[in-house]
Every structure is written in structure tokens, then in C-alpha cells.
């Protein structure tokens, strides 16, 4: 009888040790899952920082392009809105001649040589 009680106590201790081992394994699995989630969060944060750096890099490239091509675009605007309209149209004549009165006479020479001269000869 005493031997049977000792065996039952030994089985209960073994079951308790088995439950404790299972709880420790479950706790280790939960810790591993938590570490994986933290690693994924760090990777996502690093990806966001990389995208932010790329965004800033693209912004810096745009600013560098605007700085480098400022004179090119300025010349492009100046050529097409002053010279082109001055020689082929009359959109800006009033505005242009009040600041450049000496150009007023040359305009008619240009019209004469490029329209009348080519038309008659």
C-alpha cells in the first residue's frame, strides 16, 4: 500500500515536471515569436527609413537639376517669349518698344526683307 502511494506520488511529480517542461517550451516559443515580431518591426522601420532617404535623395536631385539648368530654362523662356514673338508675332510689341524704342525701326526692315522681299523676288 505504501509502495503504491509512493508510485502515485512519483507519477504526479513526473506529470508536474512534464507540465512544467511544456510550459517552459511554450514560453520559449512565445519569446521566439516575440523576437521574430520585433525583427520584422525593425526591418519595416529600416525599410521606411530607406524610403525616406530615397525620397530625400530624389528631392535633392530635383533641386540640383533646378540649380544646374536654371540658366538653360531662363534662356529658353527668354528666347521663346521675347525673340520669337518679336520677330514673328506682335504680341509683345507695346511692352517691348516702350523699353526698347530703338528696336522699333528694325522691326520693319525685318518684315520687309523676310516677307516682301521673299514674296516679290
Structural features:
transmembrane helix; mainly alpha; 121 residues; transmembrane; rod-shaped; membrane
Helix coverage percent = over 70%
End-to-end separation in angstroms reads: 138 Å
Low-confidence stretches: 95-101
Overall pLDDT: 76
Provide the gyration radius in Å.
43 Å
Could you tell me the strand content as a percent range? Answer: under 5%
Oligomer: single chain
Count the helices. How many? 4
- Name the overall outline: rod-shaped
Largest sheet: none
Number of strands: 0
List the helices and strands and how they pair.
Blueprint: H1 2-68, H2 70-88, H3 93-99, H4 103-120
Keywords: Membrane, Transmembrane, Transmembrane helix
Nutshell version of this structure?
The chain has 121 residues and is mainly α. It has helices at residues 2-68, 70-88, 93-99, 103-120. The radius of gyration is 43 Å and the shape is rod-shaped.
Please give a structural write-up.
The protein is mainly alpha-helical. The chain has one domain. About 90% of the residues lie in helices and about 0% in strands. The protein has helices spanning about 1-70, 70-90, 95-100, 105-120. It is rod-shaped and about 135 Å long. Keywords: Membrane, Transmembrane, Transmembrane helix.
Amino acid at each position: 500500500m505504501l509502495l503504491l502511494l509512493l508510485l502515485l506520488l512519483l507519477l504526479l511529480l513526473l506529470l508536474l515536471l512534464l507540465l512544467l517542461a511544456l510550459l517552459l517550451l511554450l514560453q520559449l516559443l512565445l519569446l521566439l515569436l516575440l523576437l521574430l515580431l520585433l525583427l520584422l518591426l525593425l526591418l519595416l522601420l529600416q525599410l521606411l527609413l530607406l524610403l525616406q532617404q530615397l525620397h530625400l535623395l530624389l528631392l535633392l536631385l530635383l533641386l540640383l537639376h533646378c540649380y544646374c539648368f536654371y540658366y538653360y530654362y531662363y534662356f529658353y523662356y527668354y528666347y521663346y517669349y521675347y525673340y520669337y514673338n518679336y520677330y514673328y508675332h506682335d504680341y509683345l510689341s507695346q511692352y517691348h518698344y516702350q523699353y526698347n524704342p530703338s528696336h522699333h525701326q528694325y522691326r520693319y526692315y525685318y518684315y520687309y526683307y523676310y516677307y516682301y522681299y521673299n514674296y516679290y523676288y
